[in-house]
């Protein structure tokens, strides 16, 4: 299931994607790039009515990112203007050329003429508009320059223009050797209004206050909404270090550094940046200005709370508990109920690592509703649903609770929690069986599709994917697993490919698809009889999920007939899972242990193990696992010599498997039915026996279809062997020879391991 407490991290830097950076000391200054923008604004005012409505609209949309963003090369600026208005781009280039190749007095005259934009009864630019403020800032910054600084600015302008001229000459030479169509294709791929590229920022030099604020705001928003479009962790850290070099007390840069280090799981650097953020916040007095005398204490308690969340994320539970106790103490002294509710939520997370308790969570939900904190209340409800789902509570009550939380989400437009709620429903449909639902896999698929087709309620930039969250990663992984279970491996590969593109390996949710990818590859290798490949995948699964890794290692050992080693691993895993109350894995381990007893001819010992697994599955409402356990019980009765009783049990349990089960389980169920039919036919009359054997052959054909769909060669070989024997008994020589030939081909490809056919259910 999706983790519903990921969003409990207090983020004082982000408010609707905007960074509140008001401590950066660097003022605005005039640069050649900003002079090019001033020329653009001047030419835009001169053009007036000559510009069409569409061209003016495009230019207005282009101006804001240009004014807020870092300096860029003149060639890229010209290209951006040409896309909006080619005529205006030529005018800007000519004006800059005259200024750069003229004299210093031309630049002086240009700045003197800028003031005319505000004169008259109907000025071209209003003083309080975005453009007006930019013009006034540049005029003031230029007027404060000394003569030597003016001369340096003029020299920089000449170099800025000459660099563009040299690049144009190089481009013309390259165009002679390049296909024009290919060149156009390259130009179309450039995203002129997209996020800042690494080479742009690296070459832009020191950022002004507004540029720094824009840069931090954009990168923080991308880290939250679409991590793939943010700068790479190393590049972003390099730029943040450059910002901090000019102003070490820039608190928000430290917080973005903290978020960036979390992406790469760097616990030392994350802690270092987080502590620096709150230290700088207190030293600069930014919190005191907005919160009065409470600002200092507020920073301290939220610093302790964030430190506790950080330690909990990295599994340092003792350190997290100490930090949380400190946050609670300071919050109680300040009577900060909001902070106390955050602390209570994290206290529940720490407590559930040691024992199951709903008391803290229920208290947190009630208090959050009392203090008007719908976000925390909804998180608490969803955590409560998740805990009770694992405890085997009635599914209809869980769905009612999620419905109540959905009312909170839609009422307060909590987009992220709506996504988490749908992901939780998908997981519940997958977890529970057919006891409460008519078609679990179909409903899980429907919930997944609902989430994937939803549009975010939050406003984000154009081209930014809002849905790169943990909920979407979980749902896409469920979809990949559902397709793989039904034998649609190509579709599952496409989904995983999309996951890899949306969540790159260095992103925080990449471990989800990595685990599912390894598990699907493992199942395919086991089905194909390539145990050495499956064994090589165990290490990767163990690194991502130790319990799954140990379980699959035992499965490989069992398939390789290393029974004693597999039994030791399964016994250790059983004790561990019982301790942490992982009921689903406990049942699967018990089924594997029962299969080991079959293979070791200890059939009677397997029965109590299977009955224990069946009791657990029914107690926790895991109906699909209960049906699978009943099939194993039927197999035990078959090998104990009571096939009629096995057939009776099969008719009760096989329906949910065939309706909603994985393709491999369907094939195994039909194979088991055929075995029971053949064993029961021994006491029938000759005519009835022939009918029973023919019915068994039809069931074997169905099982063969299922096994072929998932490329399960070992089971196919067993089915072909069984069919050949039945055809031989019925005197159908041609069909027998065909099955024997196919069996021989598979047998040569997959040599037998010395286990009798009757002693293997799956």
Automatic annotation (TrEMBL):
Gene Ontology cellular-component annotations: anaphase-promoting complex; spindle
Highest taxon of source: Eukaryota
Function according to Swiss-Prot or TrEMBL: Component of the anaphase promoting complex/cyclosome (APC/C), a cell cycle-regulated E3 ubiquitin ligase that controls progression through mitosis and the G1 phase of the cell cycle. The APC/C complex acts by mediating ubiquitination and subsequent degradation of target proteins: it mainly mediates the formation of 'Lys-11'-linked polyubiquitin chains and, to a lower extent, the formation of 'Lys-48'- and 'Lys-63'-linked polyubiquitin chains. The APC/C complex catalyzes assembly of branched 'Lys-11'-/'Lys-48'-linked branched ubiquitin chains on target proteins.
A Pfam family matched in the record: Apc5_N
Protein's name in the database: Anaphase-promoting complex subunit 5
Gene transcribed to yield this protein: Anapc5
Annotated GO biological process: anaphase-promoting complex-dependent catabolic process; cell division; positive regulation of mitotic metaphase/anaphase transition; protein K11-linked ubiquitination
Keyword Transferase among UniProt keywords: no
Domain Anaphase-promoting complex subunit 5 N-terminal: 30-167
Keywords: Cell cycle, Cell division, Cytoplasm, Cytoskeleton, Mitosis, Nucleus, Phosphoprotein, Repeat, TPR repeat, Ubl conjugation pathway
């Amino acid at each position: 299931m999706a983790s519903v407490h990921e969003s409990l991290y207090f983020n004082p830097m982000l408010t609707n994607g905007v960074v509140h950076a008001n401590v950066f000391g660097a003022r605005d200054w005039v640069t050649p790039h900003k002079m090019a923008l001033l020329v653009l604004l001047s030419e835009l005012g001169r053009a007036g009515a000559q510009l069409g409505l569409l061209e003016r609209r495009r230019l207005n949309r282009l101006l804001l990112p240009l004014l807020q963003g870092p300096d860029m090369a003149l060639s890229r600026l010209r290209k951006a203007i040409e896309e909006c208005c080619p005529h205006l781009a030529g005018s800007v280039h000519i004006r800059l050329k005259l200024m750069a190749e003229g004299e210093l007095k031309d630049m002086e005259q240009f700045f003197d003429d800028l003031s005319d934009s505000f004169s008259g009864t109907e000025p071209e630019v209003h003083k309080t508009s975005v453009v007006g403020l930019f013009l006034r800032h540049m005029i003031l910054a230029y007027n404060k320059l000394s003569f030597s600084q003016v001369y340096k600015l003029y020299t920089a302008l000449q170099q800025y223009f000459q660099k563009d001229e040299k690049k144009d000459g190089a481009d013309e030479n390259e165009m002679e050797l390049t296909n024009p169509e290919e060149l156009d294709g390259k130009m179309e791929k450039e995203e002129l209004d997209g996020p800042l590229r690494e080479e742009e920022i690296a070459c832009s030099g020191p950022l002004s206050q507004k540029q720094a604020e824009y840069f931090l705001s954009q990168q923080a928003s991308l880290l939250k909404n679409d991590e793939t479009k943010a700068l790479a962790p190393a590049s972003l850290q390099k730029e943040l270090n450059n910002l901090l070099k000019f102003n070490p007390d820039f608190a928000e840069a430290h917080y973005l550094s903290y978020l960036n280090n979390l992406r790469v799981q760097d616990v030392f650097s994350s802690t270092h940046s987080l502590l620096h953020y709150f230290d700088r916040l207190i030293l600069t007095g930014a919190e005191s200005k907005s919160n009065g005398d409470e600002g200092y204490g507020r920073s301290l308690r939220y610093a302790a709370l964030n430190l506790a969340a950080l330690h909990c994320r990295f599994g340092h539970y003792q350190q997290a508990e100490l930090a949380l106790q400190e946050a609670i103490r300071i919050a109680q002294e300040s009577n900060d109920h909001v902070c106390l509710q955050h602390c209570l939520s994290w206290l529940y997370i720490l407590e559930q690592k040691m024992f199951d308790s709903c008391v803290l969570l229920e208290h947190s939900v009630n208090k959050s509703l009392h203090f008007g904190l719908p976000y925390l209340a909804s998180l608490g409800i969803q955590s409560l649903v998740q805990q009770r789902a694992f405890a085997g509570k009635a599914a209809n009550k869980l769905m009612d609770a999620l419905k109540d939380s959905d009312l909170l989400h839609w009422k307060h437009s909590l987009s992220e929690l709506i996504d988490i709620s749908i992901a939780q429903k998908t997981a519940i449909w997958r977890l529970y069986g057919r006891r409460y639902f008519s078609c679990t896999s179909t409903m899980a698929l429907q919930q997944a599709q609902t989430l994937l087709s939803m549009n975010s309620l939050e406003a984000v930039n154009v081209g930014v994917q809002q849905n790169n969250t943990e909920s979407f990663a979980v749902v896409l992984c469920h979809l990949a697993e559902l397709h793989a279970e039904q034998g649609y491996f190509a579709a599952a590969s496409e989904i995983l490919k999309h996951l890899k593109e949306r969540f790159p390996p260095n992103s925080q949710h990449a471990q989800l698809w990595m685990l599912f990818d390894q598990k699907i590859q493992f199942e395919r290798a086991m089905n194909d009889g390539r145990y050495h490949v499956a064994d090589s995948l165990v290490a990767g699964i163990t690194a991502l999920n130790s319990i799954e890794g140990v379980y699959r290692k035992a499965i490989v050992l069992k398939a390789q007939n290393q029974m004693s080693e597999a039994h030791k691993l399964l016994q250790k895993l059983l004790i561990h899972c019982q301790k942490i109350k992982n009921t689903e894995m406990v049942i699967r381990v018990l089924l594997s242990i029962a299969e080991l007893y079959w293979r070791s001819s200890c059939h009677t010992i397997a029965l109590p193990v299977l009955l224990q697994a069946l009791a657990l599955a029914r107690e926790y409402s895991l109906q699909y696992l209960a049906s699978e356990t009943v099939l194993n019980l039927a197999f035990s009765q078959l090998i104990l010599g009571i096939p009629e009783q096995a057939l009776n049990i099969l008719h009760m349990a096989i329906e949910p498997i065939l309706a909603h089960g994985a393709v491999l389980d369907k094939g195994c169920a039909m194979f088991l039915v055929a075995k029971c039919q053949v064993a029961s036919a021994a006491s029938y009359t000759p005519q009835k026996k022939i009918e029973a054997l023919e019915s068994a052959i039809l069931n074997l054909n169905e099982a063969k279809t299922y096994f072929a769909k998932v490329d399960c060669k070992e089971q196919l070989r067993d089915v072909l062997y069984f069919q050949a024997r039945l055809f031989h008994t019925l005197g159908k020589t041609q069909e027998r020879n065909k099955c024997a030939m196919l069996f021989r081909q598979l047998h040569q490809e997959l040599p037998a391991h010395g286990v009798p056919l009757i002693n293997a259910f799956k």
